[in-house]
Every structure is written in C-alpha cells, then in structure tokens.
TrEMBL record:
InterPro entries: SAF
Taxonomic superkingdom: Bacteria
Skewed-composition ranges (Gly residues): 263-273
Species of the source: Olsenella porci
Name of the protein in its database record: SAF domain-containing protein
Record region (Disordered): 228-273
Ranges for domain SAF: 70-132
C-alpha cells in the first residue's frame, strides 16, 4: 500500500491496521482448521493400523492353535470364593476357541451378580465350575434323614453357614418361640445367586421324629434357625441323649417298686390267712 500523501486524512492508517488484523485472524482460523483435520486423519490412520495389527495377531493365533477367536469372561483380579461378579472384577476378552476351557462363560450378562464358589486367578476365564459347589456328595449320618429347606435372612441363618455346623430350630407362634429340634447338622449349602439364580438352600441332617415339625414350620414361614456355640450345642445334645435313658431308668425303677409293692402286699395277705 503506498504511503499516504501529505495532507491526507489519518483514516488511511486505521484502514491499514484493520486490514492487517483481519488477515491475521483468517490465517489463524485456517491454520487451526488444517491442524484439526490433520489430527483427525492421523487418528483414523492409527486406528486402522491398530485394527489391522489386532487382526494379524488373531489370525496368527488361529493359524498356530487352530479355531476361531471367541469372547470369554475373564477375571481382572484374583477372586475369592463368595466374591460377587461385577464389571469391577471381570471383563470380556478375546480367546482362541481351541484354547478355551470347557464350560467357559461367554457372556458377562449370564453371571453378572453371581458369586463364585471357588477361587479364580487373575486373567483366568470363568467357567461353570467356578459357580458350582466343589464339596463332595453329602453323606447322611446314621439315624438321620436329609432335608433341604430354603433359607433367607428371615430364617436367621443364611447359606453361608459351614458344613458340619449344628443348628437349633425354633418355631414362632403367638406365645413366642419354642424349640422344635436340636442338633440339626448342616450337610451342604448353595451360594446366593449361583449362575444367576437367587434361591438359597440348606441341606440338613434331621432326626426322623423332627422332620415333620421342621418342614411344617418352614412351609408356614415360622421356622427360625440359630447357630449355638459348641459348648451349648454339646450340652444340649448330652441332655437330649441322656433324657431317654433317664426316662427308661425311671420306668425300670418304677416297675421294680411296683413289683416289690405288689409282692409285699401278697406276703402280708398270706400271713393274715
């Protein structure tokens, strides 16, 4: 732009400054737009490269081990027995199908909220066995019968009670609670939410004479189970065991007394004659 002539208005200087500012703003906008487009293109290229590399690794693994790549539910940290499955401790991950363990879980929705029954190591796939009780088939003690009853917080003892524990059964009524059975032995228990199931169940060893009362109270919802300490349970068991013997001894003594009394009366009658 030619320099101003002598005597021209100062508006020339103002127009010059405005023109330079507009050119600088347009340049910055154009440069910013170009950088944004370049960054987007670089991201697309990088994403394509990552996908191609992943496909290459998948094809190489499939060619080496055979089979397709499937999605398995894998633990992201060590799980203990009783831990609840959530997105915080498991996730779905690609796995070569020929290397997948038998019974592997392929969908997170199937086991979400369930509790594992056995420990699961970090990065190990979850399987159906992870949610099955590893305890062997229960053995019913001699003189008992096995009874399975549903449990909840309302019953008083949940399915977390260990096998072999001795329980006492109470029945609630209008007049309060009364003991209906002692020495109920826990044979097995199911985990809450096992494989998506919300039911919990206890299998108990019950004496035959107590079965009807326990089942009736469970059906009505009046059953309450408590876990006494070992000394209390042992004391009650001794009392329950000794009570029949004491009754038999009492009956024998009473029978002997009655016979002696009858014999004495006969002797007195003979002497009188």
């Amino acid at each position: 732009m030619p320099p101003p002539q002598t005597g021209e208005s100062p508006m020339w200087a103002i127009r010059t400054l405005l023109g330079r500012s507009l050119m600088s703003l347009r340049f910055r906008l154009a440069l910013s737009t170009a950088c944004a487009v370049l960054a987007a293109l670089l991201f697309v290229v990088y994403a394509g490269h990552v996908r191609a590399e992943a496909d290459s690794v998948r094809e190489e693994a499939a060619a080496r081990f055979g089979g397709d790549v499937v999605s398995l539910v894998v633990a992201t940290k060590n799980l203990k027995a009783g831990d609840e499955v959530s997105k915080a401790n498991v996730r779905e991950r690609g796995w070569v199908s020929s290397l997948a363990p038998e019974g592997a879980i392929t969908s997170l929705d199937v086991v979400m909220g369930s509790k594992v029954a056995i420990p699961v190591a970090k990065n190990a796939p979850l399987t159906k066995t992870s949610f099955e009780d590893p305890s062997p088939m229960v053995q019913v003690p001699s003189g008992y019968v096995a009874v399975s009853i549903p449990t909840s917080e309302r019953v008083g003892v949940t399915s977390g009670v260990p096998a072999g524990a001795s329980l006492t059964a109470y029945q609630l009524g209008d007049s309060g609670a009364k003991v209906i059975a002692r020495g109920l032995r826990v044979l097995s228990s199911t985990q809450e939410g096992s494989l998506g199931m919300d039911s919990r169940e206890l299998t108990l060893a019950v004496r035959p004479e107590d079965v009807e009362r326990v089942l009736s109270a469970s059906t009505r919802g009046d059953l309450r189970l408590v876990l006494p300490s070992e000394d209390i349970a042992a004391g009650k068991a001794d009392q329950a065991t000794s009570a029949p013997e004491q009754r038999e001894q009492g009956e024998d003594v009473a029978s002997a007394d009655s016979k002696a009394s009858a014999g004495g009366s006969g002797d007195q009658g003979g002497e009188g004659r």
